[in-house]
Amino acid sequence: METVTSPNILRIRQGRIDLSFHQVVGEVFAYVLSDPRLFLSSLPPSPDTISSLPLVDLSVSSAPHADAFAALQKGETDILVGWFDGSHGTYLEPFQKDVIVLGDPSKNISALPDDDDVAAAAAFSSPPVYSPYCIWGVPSYVPEALVPDVRSLANIAIAARFKKEEGTEKHVLQGIAPGAGISRFSREMLHKYGLNEAGWEFRNGSQEDCFSAFEKAVEKEEWIVIPLWHPQYLHAHHSIRALKEPQGLLRPVDHARLVLRKDFLKQFSPQQRSAILGVLQRVTLGNSAVTEMDSYVHVDKLDYRSAARKWIRAHQAQVDSWFENGHVDIVQRATQLDQYLLEDEAAITAKQHAYAIPARAPAAAGAYSPFSTSTTAPQIIHTSFQLPFGPDGKLAYVGPILPNDASASKTSRKTITEDEGLAAARLCALNLLAQLRDAASGDLARVQLLRLEGYVATADVDGHFVNVPRILNGASLLIRHALGAQRGAHSRTALTLSTNPLDVPTMIGAVAELRW
Fold this sequence. Notes:
ABC_Gly_betaine_transp_sub-bd; elongated; Endoribo_LPSP/chorism_mut-like; CATH 3.30.1330.40; transmembrane transporter activity; Periplasmic binding protein-like II
């Protein structure tokens, strides 16, 4: 049996601004950063490429604007999604020398002089991920002849036509968080255009406050002004006219880009760094794609990850082009951890099984069901323990694990190495994901993992094997990788035995919640 070597684990901490359109774009980049093809160009084209690919441990955090940039400044995150010069320039200025704005060399100060790869990345120019811009908008039924621009709102007679807050004479411009560019610009506009005197007031709030105020007014065909931006889902469902703004206080069209800490880039080998940056620089979405994903969140009620994956599935050729390199065919599609993107499972080889969820979940090894699902809400899935069955339906690993520091002469049993045990745990995890997929009627996006239970068989006759958590980390990281940081988070039991059923080295079961 061929040994599958233990993968390198690369930890990446992604930060996001906590607004829905930043979140869905962040999920697209989370997909890219978690895709094994990210590192392909750093490896020689050979049959061993698959087993040499690292496994990314990606964590995600989100926060309001100022806090998200503060986390990046402190080194609590490595990458921030995303940065706009016009809206976010002041947040980046205090530590601009410590980061790279990917694709915009004009914003990169003193790239590391001792690192040619980082310096080259700082000097490289590429298209933006998308091109956001701010507006003050009105429903299209507000006559342009009467309200052509922001200055019109200072006319008391015109202002009187607009919705007033109940119990007051105020015309409320319902905004979002105070740190957002549109919020800062709007407060400035009230002063510069003298709108306070006409009864206008800007008010901070949540996204829901802003969007629902607009939609409720539209239902009644009331006149309303909304401080808004592109890309944003309301534009896909309502006809919104941007008011002209002659003073330019809303700033020009901006460019959305990733910001990466330089010390984060230095942890990678030059080959890995070149591969990562080469892929990330090719990721372009455009405003329409972001609007579409934002609509999936607010209208279709999908979570951020599911919204991004729905868009990815519909635009697979575009996504594949981001990974373009000389030997992508080695793992084309078969290296995807998300089963939605597996198109030719039958072609997956034994070397590729470490990265592919089986097209068909393994059958039970005895007189029992592979999983059961409760009939009451919330629906809970209990899986049976999954064994390291390979794509051919046969056990890929048999025998207990011999610790690296133990002598094989102390046991007469057939044993496997710790690295093989780690690979066996990952194979159990893939089979477990296949069972969860089947329990969720083919849709892993419905699964919230709650708990893993793992048993590791060891040939350590002295009973001092301490690496059980490391072995089961192979399963935990892979499942978190596949389901995402939030839905893949779980508690875990890790136990050791002298023998498992069918003499397998690892077996893993799960408890999960089935959503919607």
